Amino acid sequence: MSIYIESVLCRLLFLALLVHVARCWKNCNDIPFCTKFRNYDATGSDQFTANLDQVQHDKTKNIMTVPLSNGNNVKLNMELSFLMNLTLRVKILETENKRYEIQDVLDHEPQTLQYDVVEGESDSLVIKVHEQEDVSLLIKKGAPFSMEFVYKGQTQSVFDSSQLVFDNCEDGPAFSFKVVFQGATHMYGLHHHADILTLRDTTDMSPYRFYNVDNGGYRTNSTDPLYGAVPVVYGHSKERTTGIFLQNAAQQFIEIKYKESEASAHFMVGGGTLDLFVFYGPTFKDVVQQYVALTGRPHLPQIWTLGYHQCRYSYQTQDVVKEVATKMEENNFPVDAIWLDIDYTDGKKYFTWHPDNFPDPVGMQKYLASMNKRLVTIIDPHIKVDPEYPVYAGAKGKYFVKMADGSDFEGDCWPGRSSYIDFLNPEARDYIANWYQYEMFNGSTPTLAGFWNDMNEPSVFNAGQWENSLPPDSLHYGDVKHRDIHNMYGFLQTKATHQGLMTRDKKQKRPFVLTRSHFAGSQRYAAIWTGDNCGDWAHLQVTYSECMLSNIVGHVFCGADIGGFLWNPETELVQRWYQAGVWLPFYRGHSNADTNRREPYVFEPEVQEVIRTAIQTRYRHLPVFYTMFYKHVSTGEPVVRPLFYEYPEMTDIDDHILIGRDILAAPVMEKEVQTKTVHFPGDENTYWYRADQTVGDWTVHKGGTTETFNVDIKTSLYFYRAGSIVVVTNENRTSTNGILEDAFTVHVNADVKGEAIGYHYSDDGESFQYQDNEDFALFELKYQPGSSEVHAERIEGKKDVKWHIILSVCAASLHAVDHNIFKTCDKVGVCSRLRSNAKSDQFQIGDLTKYTLDKNNEAITWEVSKNKDKFKLTIQLLEGAKVRLQLEETDKVRYKLKGVLDPQNRPKPLKITPRAVKDGKQITIEPVDSKNEKHTVIVYNNPLNVAFLHDGKELVALDGTHLVMDHKTEDKTEIKDIGFVVQFNEADKLYGLHHHAYDLELPDTTVKTEDGKYKSDPFRLRNSDTAGFEANSPMALYGSVPVVYGHSKKSTAGIFLHNAAEQWVDVHYEKNGSPSTHFMVDSGSFDLFVMLGPNIEKVVQQFTDLTGKAHMPQVLEVLKQMKQNNFPLDAIWLDIDYTDNKKYFTWNKNFTGSDGKGVETMLATLGADGRKLVTIIDPHIKKEDGYVVYDEGKKGKLFVQDKKGVDFVAAREYYANHYSDQEFHHGHPEVLAGIWNDMNEPSVFNDNQEKTMPFEMMHKSDKDSETFDVEHRDIHNIYGFLHTMSTHMGLLKRDKIDDPIKKAKRPFILTRSHFAGSQRYAAMWTGDNTPDWAHLKNSYSECMLSNLVGHVFCGADIPGFFKDPVPSEEFVYRAYQAGIWFPFFRGHTSEDSEPREPYRYKSTTQELIRHAMKMRYRHIPTWYRLFYEHTQTGAPVIRPLFYNFPGDDILARPVFEEGAKTVKVHLPGKDEYWYRIDNGYTAEAYQGGQDITVDVSNGESPVFYRGGSIVVTRDRDVTSTAEGEKYPVTVYINLNKKSNYYMPICGSLRIQCCKLNGNSFSEVDVVKALRNDENKLLYKLRR
To answer: What is the annotated signal peptide range for this record (predicted)?
Structure first.
């Protein structure tokens, strides 16, 4: 509503209004107490001292009183009491003068807590509270004295008494104080001001002022006073937030200042008492809830109040009211209430109706009710001076504010001369409350459902000397001066109104009251709005700041006049305001009498459509707002909130708003713009679905990013958070009537895990039954990946609710990894410490000649020093061109890795001879048998460096200038860093560091930007559940094999760090120099193996000699796929849902069946058909009593434990035992032929620990030891290795390894997490990949690299694990064509994906997939032979071109390019010939050493045989490997052209238990027999 201008008669004179507003309000320089206090700084005798030797303790009330005094004989008492919710109350009172203490503001008298003075000296005291051990208070005597508010030993804020003043100024008693917020970068609070959210530094401007005034057309971006006063300040930083609340309703000025490491609030107050509450936080959410706990939360609003409201100053007649309601209905604009301003009354006399314009108010209300609309009318606090007016007559002399002489105060307002109800008087409140009763307010019915308390600052016209309000010295009940309660006058009016409505409706309906003036605690009684704003862009832009601020100070039911109350806004602004207003809790259109009518239906049709869409968007989201109000009522959390409430770092963004935590709105608030920039909160694993688009067209946007969107007038951007469930209505209604019974659309916004959770609240929408009888229901909604339904569980209340749900599931490609969960180098101690540490303090060997040889002359050792630390360096030369170097502290113990090196092939040390020292700076170590062993080592001193040579060439060097080995404690954290740099002197490329989704060649990670920042993180080795991992990234994945090969055409050498702790490795390519790797290791031992090749085949063999080779697989396990419609199939795989509620080694009822024999029947059926079953067994054991695996493990102390540790070896044996048929009953071990060990990084669903086990957990390394001696940090990367070792042990036991009669089957295990040596126990796959072309291409690099580091049994999920992006048919068949050349071949998808079995695609796609799979099955003999060769020599099964050529026999070039019509194929070996065989085994041959272009437009996937090879296949179409074994093999003899004739070259074949004519044959025999037995074999000659 408008303010006055200069008289009642001229209030429509708009220009006069503008002139008046410009000159109206006083600033600090106009107020004596502010002028005095602002520049005051206590010195000398003014400074207060805390008399700590006179402290008094009231143990009954838990109040401590500290006397304060200064040299001017001013004496104060400071009362301190600790309260619940980490809050401290500080009340400072004058000993000789009693000041007024306001009442009713707090929701209840807060409970005090017991405290102790835990330490104290003559000049300080420390006080702690019994029930809140983290909270303390430090009082320093002074002078000036100070109080430090301490949380967990850290000072959060300080009461600075240098600004403490109690004085009687010209304008009454006043006081001043200052609070400093340590570390705060932003301050918030001091609602209500029309400004940005962050409080400004007011050094060069007037301080913020609290003096509730009728400031119509107020200035924006100003510290001017407005309609409300909530004296709360929050000091905020990314790390912490604290706050204060001054319970005082007098006029206040607050000076805000920022310094480098602190911010301060200096309160200057013109009356009342210093009653301060300090909130310890420590988070922003905490301080908000601590404040709300004091001042209270409202009851729930009625559901209709959350709809749209239509108002104007004024709808002059009841016919106009009916017309507005009718036209809104006819034009399909939702509206729930029509509002009446002052002109409905008879001569501005409230609780009356204008006899001519509203002759039948009851009939009008019935008309509205028939349309499901309600009525709201205005009731102001001024009462017309008219003896004939019953409201005035009943209050005269009793219930009005008085002057000093005892007469009723009279002033001008809308009615003319008026008196003002003294709402401080409880009887006056009762009196006014009574007038709201139906029988007193004649013509009112239940349709008059709400009231509007306006002008209640209070506003008084023609009172410029008092800033148009009551005189400060006017008197209230109990002779309280108005100056002491000015800011809570409106609060007291709404308290009376609320009381009246509670009585009127017999406490059956929740009152609805809207107030303009408000104070702390008003939220318990009324909604608020931002007052008489202007129809301009600046006022639109500030509304979000105003209402977000009101929400974080408890006033959650806030809104703004849509379109602006004053002026005639342009049409674009009106539309944008409707769009923005959707997301404010209170949603009302309102305008002044002198403006053009602007109900939605008066605009042009295209404008109407924009407004209609906005209002309908609001109504669809009413379930969200209603649920958020319930959450506020229950917990105090805001309904809407600024971004920094949920994301502390996202400050200074005022045009975005969060509704709860799940909806982000960023409407357009600028004129004539075509784009809108949106700042998406969160980190890299937070995603937001754009929800203002048509469902199905939603786009997805990553947190922590900024995007610019094209916008037109119809665009109003809002987003749903991934991981949320948002419940919206499914009907377009014109009011809220029936909305609670509507069908709901449940938007499931899946997160990166495919999961979502949300809440929905339901009750009767109007009564207090939710409070009185728990007649409500709060549902928790959960969605699990792949489900077709949402699980709704009532978690609060007793109401039975029938749901009508339409499910909408959104799960776009969200599988990029959370870089807040999975940390970057700068967030990890070891990497951030060592990466920037270019050179360390140098290691020194005092005298190279003072070494020690062991008794066998196989190890040489030196004492080494660095500063004062002592170390031992040991070097061994190992058989087969390998070297072992170990560095260890002499006085500290580090964990040494066990079980990784192959126990069947332990590295054999050689006898060595140290050569003479040269110049005291170097010594050479060489083998005694230098004829056969060509590797030597040179150790250099000052500084320590080590060179590794083969046949005289230095291939590898350990650069000692970067060598770090720290073992110390800093800030209670044990640091065990290892850092070293290795150079590869003859190399030009580096390979290794498996597992990463990168190209084979390791890229340079040390490249920097122009400002000196690294462009890339180092490669990270830390086994992690990085589902949806990024392609072409150095981030950690599921496995860790710390091996690097330095390769060139001339030579290859490698290193292997025998350490399972977290590692970061920088790769650097020196221009015109040698490439190098910089290892940064978190803990464990320095145990380095150097492999000196000198070629790639030798280096790979040397590494597999160290860590072991895979055993031969069973033939059936070479591949995995589904079989339908003549698609080959060998095994069905079961993920976790086969179990009884995720309890491993159990079956659920869907498998056991009612007779308990379902599993045996299933397995027997599979076995009869030659198929196998593989089931998943993860390492985590469900914590459930009665579950035998848990019970026995707990009893045997076999679980990883905090601090005490776990019997880890015994745990493996125990775990292995559960694979027996007795423990894991199935009856058919020959069919249940494999086990899948997943989630074994290990994965733990706790984002704060990077989704894994905390590194401080303890393991036991020896089952016979009583000591838990191994930190998880030391063995993290081998956890999965140990898991598969246990499983392997279990399967060997199950299949009778100890029975000499029954020979054991070779176990088949698939593992996700792996380390060096895992190949001895399990196959591995690339993990939870994404169905996109980048991941498909990277999968080849991943598996070729895994083969180079011994993990030959590797594959990738075909055609990608995750649901999104939904793969095209082209991508699917290309993935199958690529996958047939992986050693491990499995189709696998997530449960939320559409089924992707081959037979589900169109026939042309099926045929391409079938052709690929048949080619795979035809080559089973080749795969089997390659595995045999690996077991004998360590050679890879698949390999990159640089490994082989000149070399092996089959070359595949899958298509990784989307839409490719041709591809380039590089045919290696200039002396080779290549036969193309994917196109029907034609005689098409190509010369090697060239690139050729191949047509793939018809789905071809090029494959070639090498000339000179013999390739053995089975050219029969079979549906399993078991069926294939019945048929003869086909031998492809691919002749090599040499000069002018063809030279036949023999291939080799290994057949499991091969028998021919009843005899067993060796490898050579088999080849000969295959050549000579024409009855068994089909010859195909290739020329």
So the answer is: 1-24
